[in-house]
User: Fold this.
Amino acid sequence: LQERAILDINSAQFTDDLEKARVKYLGKKGELTEVLRGMGSLSAEERPLVGKVANEVREEIEAHLEKAKTLIKAKEMNKKLETESIDVTMPGKDIVLGKRHPLTQGMDELKDIFISMGFKVAEGPEVETVYYNFDALNAAPNHPSRDMTDTFYINDDVILRPQTSPVQVRYMEKTKPPIRIISPGRCFRNDTPDATHSPMFHQLEGLVVDKGITLADLKGTLEVFVKKFLGEHTQIKFRPHFFPFTEPSAEVDATCFKCGGSGCGFCKKSGWIELLGAGMVHPNVLRNCGIDPEVYSGFAFGMGVDRLVMLKYGIDDIRLLYENDMRFLNQF
Ligand code: PHE
Assistant:
């Protein structure tokens, strides 16, 4: 019996086979159990002898079972490791990570720069009134930007704002100087879309009003901004211009950050790129907001965020910013 049991145990391939062998010999109806059960019919002299042998056989079988179990477990584990091993040279699965839109990135960077200079962020409505966008901003009744061909009219008094400048008025009406705000946001103009025009675009407005604010403050502020945004070596120059709400007014150019000002294809050989509009807040605008221009003065500036983002990232068509093509967006 012992020999057969050991043979069965040693030929077992799986833990299942071992269990079968255990039941066959040691189970309730197992062969060894039968032997022990049959001991009642033995004589008093035979009983202890058979009992002793039977116990030895049980111990022997149990020891073999234990040993075989350890071996088979190890074998099964090895097999698992072999067949379920991971090929670390296989290409991985792409993890799709969301990113901020290049415009949002640009906007955030612009905001961070001005916030670091002590500006607060103020926002105004995209659907604006003619009063805040034109009248209060000192635009002459016949100013061309009032024309329907330039501005989207909801009705005679209500428009989609074509600039962020009306936020200046809204803020000055409510807040007395000192004022130091930026106002980022969406603007709309009745333009046919092309590489440089989009009927919806973004501006960032700046406004500083206090006692004794001069053109030098405007220049200094813009210089710090431009160096942070376009690079330490960037220089700026003011070109005289006209805006109804500033006097004097200027357009501000920066040295081309591609060629450093020597002239390249990017800046059309001029060495300069147009950056923003700016000027000293017109006394009429201050007066319209209840601020005494004899006491206070201020400067304002407004920049096209789309344009700046395009310059910085070398994007040559504004429409790319609004098409949401993943092949484009994934590059930023
Ligand atoms: N609002 C002007 C524009 O849209 C920019 C500007 C803002 C100019 C503030 C001067 C002062 O072109």
The longest helix spans residues 46-83. The mean pLDDT is 93. The two ends are 78 Å apart (CA to CA). The longest strand covers residues 200-210.
